[in-house]
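Database export, one record per block. Field names are fixed; values are copied verbatim from the stored entry.
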Amino acid sequence: MYKVEWSEEMEILIGPYHDFICEVLKFVNEEPKFIVKQDSDTSVLKKKMQTMVKDESNIYSFFEVAIRTNLKEYICELKYEGINLLDQYNEFVDNYENFLSLEWNANITYSKQVTEAFEYFYTDLIHGKIFNDLIGESNAIKEFRERITLESTCPYCDIHDMEFDIASIDHFIPKARYPLLAIYPKNLVVACSACNDRIKKEKLYLPIIHPYFNNLDDYFCFTYKNNVIEFEFLDHISVGDREKVENFFKLFNIEKRYNRYCQKKLKRLKEEIQRNVIKLIKSSKDITIGEIESNIREEICEQYNYILKEKKIDPLTKLRLDYLKQMSKEDLSDLSLYIANENSYKPIAFGMN
């Protein structure tokens, strides 16, 4: 529900993935070039790397990783493609936000070999010690996941606390369909396993907002009426932005999940307000309905300020804050009478002493 600020720490941890991909794909475009597959290709490539490592003019930092891992085999496979994958990768990265807004179309079909190579980068290579030694981290992707989950809720749904063991890394633009983005840093979003593994999976609806670039809170507010949670767009939101938000809600099944699992939070919040006001006026005498309502509004304000401090930390802060805003604008005379009756005395008429 809230924007995830791309911090310097995040950049330090996984930002080097981008430089790594650029280096690998730059080398794929260079000699030796393979056209027809031969059993000796991997050996030829390895010897080339071993020779270049000793050359002071060598500009590539990943050779030691390639020599000591299966990376060299996948580089061979990418060389067989005979296309400029570096240009394709850079074009996609440059147009990442445009792609999400349907202002640029990645009209590219990727071969099985390209998909498998980038799948290897994500599922195997970046988790290994040899690669992480290269970028100066013990396990950058694990550390990234751990840092994001500390005192944080899911940026997609805001329903769940994110503990390390129940959070996962989502490829916002699915790597199965767009493998070049498999380890592009800003395509990697730490989310709750419900959103990523059970609901979103490999789906994507365009145009859509993204938690690294947009603050969903700025586009809409929740309402709770007649035991139904709905969302209403703010007046200044354009038609195009509404479609992005609607697709985000559709992708993560927000409205259905909120109505099934989150209504009880609002009921408990209202009950807490009632209890606190009853406790406050318990020893009061000759209190008016107007004074009870004033106490309710003060309690709403206190609850709002308390929850506001917990944004991105406690679950459902967006929902609860919007509900409190809604309550503050409503006629609270019925609630005031209910509290008066619960307090077991007959209040003086509204506003009269």
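Remark 1: The chain is about 50% helix and 5% strand.
Remark 2: Residues 170 and 196 are 6 Å apart (CA to CA).
End of record.
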